[in-house]
Amino acid sequence: MKDFKARLEPLTTERKKTLDGLKKKAEFVTERCFKFIDQEAREVGYYNENGDLIESRPAYSEELQTTLFQIGRKTGTNN
Questions:
Q1: Residue 64 confidence (pLDDT)
Q2: How are strands ordered across the β-sheet holding 43-48?
Q3: Residue 43: C-alpha distances to residues 13, 59, 67, 76, 78 (Å)
Q4: For the chain, does the N or the C end have fewer beta carbons within 10 angstroms?
């Protein structure tokens, strides 16, 4: 009986994980993402390594404050 329970345990955990994903209609994935701030559109976009847009939202006021690097990029004087 112990051997049977030991073989059944991985299947039970996988079933619970699959059912949880179906209930939430989503699958949580951990991967490297990149954040880009569009100053003109006042939006923030999160992209994965493949370049797919994962999430976008309105930018916070702290994210829209310009720095010296952003000023150089906007004027085209950045080398």
A1: 83
A2: 33-38, 43-48, 53-58
A3: 39, 5, 17, 21, 23
A4: C
Return the closest-CA partner of residue 70 out of 34, 39, 25, 32. 39
- Number of Cβ within 10 Å of residue 46's Cβ equals 14
The tokens for 13 are: 């955990």
Distance CA 43, CA 48 (A): 17
Please check whether residue 33 is in contact with residue 40, taking contact to mean a CB–CB distance below 8 angstroms: no
Reading the block at residue 2, the tokens are 């112990």
